[in-house]
Amino acid sequence: MPTQPEPLEPAVEVTDIRALRALSHPLRNRLLGHLRLHGPTTASRLARAVGESSGSTSYHLRQLAGYGFVEEVEGQGTGRERWWRARHRMTSWRAADLLAQEGGAEVQEEMTRLQIDQHARVLDAWYEQREQLDPAWTDAASLNDYALRLTPAQARALTAELTATLARWLAAHPASARPVEGAEQVSVLLDVLPLHEWPS
User: Looking at residue 164, what is its pLDDT?
Assistant: First the structure.
């Protein structure tokens, strides 16, 4: 196993619809997320982690590599047991860039659904695990929602400000960092969503 993995690049902004379409595959999305959270590993170990065959994970890792989301770890493993790593901590894209391309609306829909499903899984996992955590996390964990009235420009400015704050924390405390006593992986879900009506 790599003893000193290279740090991940902060983010990649995707403008090619083909790359985002490749990432919209649910298993590929899970594989990339696992590599980002847990660091480099092999297709076989990933297969055990996600309940798939190593042939399937190998294929999908190669697809992700073809679009630059993951890469082989140099000097690790063999031809039969290659090590893979994520290249970036996060992926971003602009909906307007996608919608301007043929098939962009469908890909945007798929990625949005994946994100919503992932948020739901994270919240459900926290709810199920919360009593197993150190009592200090009872006060530290936080569920919030806020209602503001903003223009699109103001919403973009708010998102940029919040993202900049999170980027500093991500740089100092990446999820793939070596575990330290008392630290857990923490999910921060950041959504800025316009609503005609607040759900009742």
Answer: 93
